[in-house]
Design a protein that fits this description.
Mean pLDDT: 90
GO molecular function, one term: structural constituent of ribosome
Protein name: Large ribosomal subunit protein bL32
Helix content: 10-25%
Shape: rod-shaped
Keywords: Ribonucleoprotein, Ribosomal protein
Distance between the termini: 65 Å
Radius of gyration: 23 Å
Pfam family, one: Ribosomal_L32p
Structural class: alpha+beta
Strand order of the largest sheet: 1-2
Order of helices and strands: HEEEE
Family: Belongs to the bacterial ribosomal protein bL32 family.
Largest sheet: 2 strands, antiparallel
Length: 60
């Protein structure tokens, strides 16, 4: 079994982990109802996506 001969420094460990951070989700706005929606998702309020109504919303 392979065992490391020396301890990795904090600098080296940090360099390796520099790409592990989570990125913020990008938010767009629905052109139909102007509510904030995550990009590439159907609008939860009006069901609008890419120029057409994909999900019918019932009036309550």
């Amino acid at each position: 079994m392979a065992v490391p001969k020396r301890k990795h420094s904090n600098s080296r460990t940090g360099k390796r982990r520099s790409h592990d951070a989570l990125k913020k989700r990008s938010i767009g706005y629905c052109p139909q109802c102007s509510s904030a929606v995550p990009t590439h998702h159907v609008c939860p309020k009006c069901g609008y996506y890419q120029g057409r109504t994909v999900v019918k919303q019932e009036e309550s």
